């Protein structure tokens, strides 16, 4: 029976234990060696004595990051840093690491990001990097728990599609047998078809693909999109689902892994709802009062977002964006220059975009025209509006970008296992 | 406040209630009309009287599958089939359906599958079709709950990749900026890199892409793959995780939705573990005793699978497949002609494939050679074997195929919202 290193502290002094993991460091004093061993839960010192170990000579030459299985006795009165060590009885060598390592695991020397990504399997062995993905996994589990309680159906819509969600730009082309196809940029149109299908409330977690040439610390060409759509709700209700899903999941994560997060320098505070809301128009006014010169229709610059972040400090919504700035499926407000839309910001970064959507067939057709789109490209979609489409609203949330901002990482690639960008297709 | 139709039975007679949904059927008697209204939880009769309804004339002409919002009073002494009806006070028309419907929702006339898929948004309004996807969503939630309890980290690996998982065949090509890329057939290689990264236990749910030209009732070119991989385990432990995950999730689903499943003719029985196991070699012998003529190295034909299905009736494992029949990363058994591999069968259909994987770098290199693969294509992968790779095992499971077989559907497209096959790319 294997014991994880983090669980050793619950065992009695003198217990026999088997642990499995990586050789992080060794120190050798003639006929005695100390191995700092690591698994995904922690690290511990193992002692091996020449007298009592058949394969001591082999072990003596073991390289850093080799994999071993240790059977031994727990000593809780050790003078090692943790006050515990395993006195090895049998140590099996499972895999020997080559030298030199292309990237250090415990070295303080920082490698450039390309070297780290080229050797991601070593980079991810650092506990502070593993923790990002444990956090991400649990965050998503929390979001799913919330959505499940709210009776959302989790769905899977196709990623190989015949038409562009947003109308043509930034698409990756796929050779699909004899046909031309694309990778989907967003499940938006399919979520809406499911609303027409009577699914009432759907959400999806899956890859989304954007052939954007921008190569910044916030952009990925493939990312994990969390999308929801619900029937018979408006933009305001969609915002409530969003703030409640995020606060539920983040606060659950803090409860689960607060100590570990703090240990590795990730500071998170419990989230309170409702999040503050500011309209686009009030935002413009506020920013102009604070030294900027913005007109209706202007996007918020990084500088503008920094000013708003200082005001709100954390999550906040910007609502009621101009029609010209939102996609064709966005529902107009009573004033048709504005839409029933919102962005969720975390400090100075947009993490979610959402809106009430158009459900009226005629209004949708008019919007295709206004946006210069060819309605024939969307036949599979607009057909679903002709035979009973309820009002509906929803949002889409980039998982990696959310985690990047929650954990104050400085590059979205830090919260992406194997990032895809303009220049990177491997590993 | 909206009430879902299924929740109406818990309300008191005479309660005021708002329901929202689709007009399934209407009957009209001069100044009185009856509307059978449907939402995603059920259906109920609504009465509308000319005397008390401002928009009665509009309502009188309402078409099937239009969307309405009804505010009215609950009458629990109705002579309608369910013994309940809503006496309408205000009925708002939210969306009018065109006529004729390209596909009926409640008609008993069965449409051909292409017509159904072309009008999937109407096809999915049938409660027996919706139920398949409610089942699928909850099944996956159950699997995740199990994996989370077992400390698996849910991960997302890239779908745009530079190399073929299985070595070149059946790949969809993607134009990735200036480079050539492919859609991933399976997260296998990435899961293994994560094992080398010290992630210990990972699982992923995501799309997998196979450019297979076969167009059968069991094949999809894009499907949802559930993949797991764990360090320091063998094929036998991987089989335990699999049977326990499936039985946990299926039995949870039966508890949750037994009544509804029975109502629509889906019969499921509680699953018991462990599942029976038969080795490939014993399978050959058993099949030859039952009239077939199979040699070592032959695959099991549909006829062979039917014979085994009669013997086992439900889930069973076939273990120890010949090396020639398994991918390059499969760990050989003590007898090198065999592998530490398994298939999970549900009756006569394979639903999962798994194995202990090779972790020794030298053995992996030899296997590239044996299988005629170019190791340079796999540099990003085999590098992770050089610096400490633990023994590991795992499996991959097709979600839609599992649901198809659990619910005894006759086509995997029935458990796929928007199937992709050789000829279908839309909707």
Automatic annotation (TrEMBL), chains A, B:
Any GO molecular function: RNA binding
Binding site for ATP: 210-212, 218-220, 350, 398-401
Annotated binding of Mg(2+) 3, by residue: 350
Site features described as Important for tRNA discrimination, chain residue numbers: 81
Pfam families in the record: tRNA-synt_2, tRNA_anti-codon
InterPro entries, A to Z: Aa-tRNA-synt_II (IPR004364), aa-tRNA-synth_II (IPR006195), aa-tRNA-synth_II/BPL/LPL (IPR045864), Asp-tRNA_synthase_2 (IPR004523), Asp/Asn-tRNA-synth_IIb (IPR002312), NA-bd_OB-fold (IPR012340), NA-bd_OB_tRNA (IPR004365)
UniProt: Mg(2+) 2 binding residues: 350, 353
Region Aspartate, annotated ranges: 188-191
Top-rank lineage group of the source organism: Archaea
Residues given in the record as L-aspartate binding sites: 166, 210, 353, 357
Keywords noted in UniProt: Aminoacyl-tRNA synthetase, ATP-binding, Cytoplasm, Ligase, Magnesium, Metal-binding, Nucleotide-binding, Protein biosynthesis
Iron keyword on record: no
Subcellular location: Cytoplasm
Principal subcellular localisation of the protein: cytoplasm
Listed GO CC annotations: aminoacyl-tRNA synthetase multienzyme complex; cytosol
Cofactor(s) it depends on: Mg(2+)
Domain annotation Aminoacyl-transfer RNA synthetases class-II family profile: ranges: 133-427
Cofactor note: Binds 3 Mg(2+) cations per subunit. The strongest magnesium site (Mg1) is bound to the beta- and gamma-phosphates of ATP and four water molecules complete its coordination sphere.
EC numbers, comma separated: 6.1.1.12
GO biological process, one term: aspartyl-tRNA aminoacylation
Catalytic activity line of the entry: tRNA(Asp) + L-aspartate + ATP = L-aspartyl-tRNA(Asp) + AMP + diphosphate
Protein family according to the UniProt entry: Belongs to the class-II aminoacyl-tRNA synthetase family. Type 2 subfamily.
Its biological purpose: Catalyzes the attachment of L-aspartate to tRNA(Asp) in a two-step reaction: L-aspartate is first activated by ATP to form Asp-AMP and then transferred to the acceptor end of tRNA(Asp).
Assembly with partners or alone: Homodimer.
Name this protein carries in UniProt: Aspartate--tRNA(Asp) ligase
Species in which this protein is naturally found: Ferroplasma acidarmanus Fer1
